[in-house]
Structures are given as C-alpha cells and as structure tokens.
Amino acid sequence: MSRQKTGGRKKGTPNKVTKDLRQRITDLLEKNFERIESDFNKLDSEKRLIILEKYLKYSLPPLQTVNVQAEIKSQLEALSDEQLTQLAEKIITKSENL
Question: How many structural domains compose the chain?
C-alpha cells in the first residue's frame, strides 16, 4: 500500500541544510584564502597536485570516461618534479586570473 506524497520539497528545490553548509564552507574559504594559499604553496609539487586534483572535481565537470582519466594520470606520472611544479604554478596563476 503506497501513500500519496503530501508535502516536503518540490522537485528541483535545493535542500536548505545543504545550501547553508555550502555557504558556510565558501565563507570559511574566502575568509582564510591567503592562509590556505600560503600553506598550499609550502607543499611539495606532488602534494600540491594531489590537492588540486581533489578540489578541481568541485569546480570542473567530471570527466566522462575512465580512459581520459587514465591518460591524464599516465601523462602526469611521466613528468619530472620540476615539470610538475611548473604545471602547478601555471594552474594556480590561471585560476587567480579568472
């Protein structure tokens, strides 16, 4: 026996708790951006790329295929520490200019 829905959020209406939490996180990041950036810049190149990879998924649409992810990973693994550092610096510079 199923009941008819009689309330709650309408389809497509954002969850208020999620919206509030996202705003708090955004505010925290904005208020502490310089400190976060300073800490980030103190990391070695490998750790910076790991952090970038984790956070980029929140700002970029997800890759559609595993093949593309595997190709990028193999290309990154082939880079030297110096090349990884240069790549990380370019990404940071470009993101600051957006």
Answer: 1
pLDDT tens per residue across span 16-60 = 778 888 889 889 989 999 999 999 999 999 999 998 888 887 776
Whole-prediction pTM = 0.42
Q: Are 49 and 76 in contact (CB under 8 A)?
A: yes
**For residue 3, is it within any domain?**
no
- For residue 33, the enclosing domain spans 16-96
